[in-house]
Design goal:
globular; alpha/beta; 379 residues; 14% strand
């Protein structure tokens, strides 16, 4: 069951800015983040916050009660719902609600605070250069010295053209790379110049499992991002414009470039992707059912796009032979989903992940020698 607690008036205001965020079990961080936006806005009456909270979060009720008793000069709206399949799902759900009354959307995590007085006026000034609304402004992450999109500011018109606020598929990473790529290819990505600071520090990544599969998923959905770019260019220049025709004519070449030079992980070999996963994941316990559901949905999406999957005989009867382990690990290292290698349950997926990690990290040298012998590779 989904419950909406709306404080913002229902009428649409083109200059209203909605800050979209999620919180779970970190009420003090959320309070500080919300206050920073409220205190530093030039016009708090045209700013609101939309927050997605899980219906099993015990801190949510007291947090909402706190703001009911201590209201900020910006309205705070709440969506109380089951824990989302992915963060993209949650952001898209609150974005739909926010766009009923706001022309601007800001995606923002609770472990950062805005530090710039007049941040709202700055956003509107920068977007004045794009009266069609077809642009993406990125907020620079102070922990990284790069121009990659990690937090975004967009207009309602952008979401309508692209089809969502964030892609709904990914349980970790990749969503920001997705929007970075389409905004750069459309020529409408810019630094919006809003200063922020982090208060949580750089932590590890939740729900981060099976990096080779998600790398494969990202590469095989390049055509979907290309189509979004065509929609954006058509809105910007008109569907009959030469730039749109040239883009469509060079579809294959552009998609090849999207899969290569524009995507920083494309050059990584499967063992490097697994090493990256082991370095950055915070997951040390069993794989969650929500993750498996997200992976299943992603696999279904690939199949709907007509993308070929990993195939083979992955029957996992006991006992499992060394040859069968090798086949499973080989498939996982080359981008198989857990479902494609017969792991429909969290317990089975965890066991297969342990096999793969043993190969990757060298904990079972004898088994690795067997793996190389079976595959005829150098060990």
């Amino acid at each position: 069951m989904v419950q909406i607690i709306r404080a913002t008036p229902c009428e649409y205001h083109n200059d209203r800015i909605s800050v979209l965020t999620l919180t779970r079990n970190r009420p003090e961080m959320f309070k500080a983040m919300a206050r920073s936006f409220a205190d530093l806005a030039d016009d708090p009456s045209l700013v609101d916050i939309w927050c997605y909270v899980d219906d099993d979060d015990a801190t949510a009720g007291p947090l909402m009660a706190y703001f009911a008793a201590n209201p900020l000069p910006v309205a705070i709206n709440w969506m109380i719902a089951p824990r989302p399949l992915t963060l993209g799902h949650a952001f898209n759900d609150i974005a739909v609600e926010a766009m009923n009354s706001a022309g601007y959307l800001v995606g923002f995590p609770e472990d950062f605070n805005v530090t710039m007085p007049g941040w709202d006026s700055q956003a509107r000034r920068k977007f004045a250069a794009y009266p069609d609304g077809m642009a993406l402004g990125f907020i620079r992450d102070p922990m990284y010295d790069d121009d990659n999109v990690k937090m975004l500011v967009v207009r309602k018109e952008w979401c309508e053209a692209v089809g969502d606020f964030l892609p709904p598929y990914f349980p970790f990473w990749f969503s920001d790379v997705w929007v970075d790529q389409i905004s750069a290819l459309a020529g409408r990505k810019f630094d919006i110049g809003i200063a922020i600071t982090d208060v949580g520090g750089k932590g590890r990544t939740k729900r981060m499992w099976n990096m080779p599969f998600w790398n494969r998923f990202f590469l095989e959905t390049a055509g979907q991002r290309f189509d979004a770019v065509v929609r954006l260019l058509s809105r910007i220049h008109g569907s009959d414009a030469a730039v749109v025709r040239d883009c469509v004519a060079d579809r294959d070449g552009i998609i090849t470039r999207m899969q290569g030079e524009l995507y920083p992980l494309q050059g990584q070999e499967p063992p490097q992707l697994v090493a990256m996963e082991l370095k950055y994941t915070e997951e040390s316990t069993g794989i969650s059912p929500l993750y498996l559901a997200a992976e299943r949905a992603a696999l279904d999406h690939l199949q709907a796009l007509g993308r070929p999957g990993i195939s083979g005989d992955f029957a996992l009867a006991e006992p499992v032979s060394v040859q069968q382990q090798a086949a499973v690990v080989s498939a996982l290292m080359n981008g198989a989903s857990f479902h494609e290698v017969g792991a429909g349950s969290a317990d089975t997926a965890r066991r297969l992940l342990e096999w793969r990690n043993a190969y990757q990290t060298g904990f079972t040298a004898g088994w690795i020698r067997q793996y190389h012998k079976i595959h005829g590779t150098a060990g």
